[in-house]
Amino acid sequence: MSFVTELIPPRPAPAATKQGLTVARIAGISVLALWALLAAGLVLTVINGWNQDKFLRYGPRYLHGLWTTISLVGISVVLGAALSVPIAFARMSKNRVAGAIAYAYVYVFRSTPLLAQLFLIYYGLGSFKPQLESVGLWWFFRDAWYCGLLSFVLNTAAYQAEILRGAIESVPRGQHEGAAALGISKSIAFRKIILPQALIVALRPYGNEIILMIKGSAVVAIVTVYDLMGETRYAFSRTFDYQTYLWAAIFYLAIVEVLRHVWAFLEARLTRHLKR
Amino acid sequence: MSGIFSALFGALDPLCGPIGIFSLFGSNSLIACGDAGWGDEIAFGVLVTITLAVATVPVGLFIGFLIALAAQSKDKTLRLAAGIYTTIFRGLPELLTLFIIYYGMQIGLQAVLAWFNYEGRVEINAFLAGMIALAVVFSSYSSEVLLSAFRAIPHGQYEAGEALGLSRWRTLRLIVLPQLIRIALPGLTNLWLILLKDTSYVSVIGLADIVRQTGIAARVSKEAFFFYFIACLLYLALAVISSFGLRYVERWARRSEVRR
Description:
The complex is a heterodimer of chains A (276) and B (260).
Chain A: H1 23-48, H2 52-92, H3 96-111, H4 114-124, H5 129-135, H6 138-142, H7 144-170, H8 173-181, H9 186-216, H10 228-239, H11 243-270
Helix pairs in contact in A: 2-3, 2-7, 2-10, 3-7, 4-7, 7-9, 8-9, 9-11, 10-11
Chain B: H1 2-12, H2 21-24, H3 39-71, H4 76-91, H5 94-115, H6 126-152, H7 155-163, H8 168-198, H9 210-221, H10 224-253
Helix pairs in contact in B: 3-4, 3-6, 3-9, 4-6, 5-6, 6-8, 7-8, 8-10, 9-10
């Protein structure tokens, strides 16, 4: 019978073998090289195609387009938020009819493209000119900007209603019960207990919705609104210069990235009491 | 043989067949099929929209899967490369991506051909450009879905695969992928519905999809509200049909789970 009489003396862990050139690294470096090449190409096209004249002519137009995009999205998100509140409450109400109507609204506006909605409002309602003139609403439906605004408000209200409903329903029942046990009235409990918790849950989806709206707002360019995309198309149709689209890409990327970081900061700030 | 099949498909055509919706309105309505109305043109648009969406999904999913693999790789450079891709294409409006790819391909091809001393005008197929643009957007979103699904799979699953002596590829295919599909399916379902709506953008570069065909009909017949309303109804119908289909797929994916 044999057995171990002495233990192996303790030894340090083997040194980590240095990973050489793996397939992953080769792929990573080559893709990064491709990105660098594309970036260099972008810079080169901008430098080679630099034209003081074009810059002075279209630069201010781009800034104006940027402002149009931002104001359009800003106004429609705010108005959509206001419209989403009754929809969300109708969706949560015990009244079957109100619930069904709100559900139908949300379903229809979420499952048809924004482009088709915009066309339906701008071209479709625009074909009822005599009727609209007799009601005195023609000034509204004549203007592409207002039509874009209306379709955005209706569209984003459907999405925001779902965000709001989801957030309110995510607050545990115990919070309602706790408030009732403390003798707090329902409206105050909602305002001071339910809503603050719900809005923290809703913060990230709201940020996503704003980003989606900024990206979606490019469609108004098709109905002749000169937003950022519209100015880009205008500049391209005049110059046939591919740079125009690259500049628009840079602007859009900048807006989205800024918004994303602001939102990350906001979320970190507003949820710091939840961190352990 | 093919005659029988085409006759069968013709008879079952949900829009323009003998029991199709457009045919039910009679042969004199605006949406009648044939020369009198716009039914057959719109039906063709529906076909183009569906074909485009269906053709985009496998390409987009494949690229998205590769991006997700890259984004969770141990190698830093690969993660960075994947991060740049998703940041760019999730940040750009779909419409702008479409224009950049459409005109970019045109200009790029022209430059390459000019190198070979060919000076003719090249036209890029709108379907191809639309498919590439939508696939790029779809892949950058689906890579995020797949990445979070990858993270939901415990590390022990990989270790178990290694312990069983499976190669890395077989671990991925036999152990990780079946679970991945199940976890990622709800997210991918959403992406499919978004893709279906995004196909409407290709009408801008002249592809004859639902929006374009109804738009032509609206302009010619001066019944804009009616035709754009039909366009919205068609998209709604596609969404309803695909949500039924996707419910079936989700049940199929969960067939091995314990029924509670």
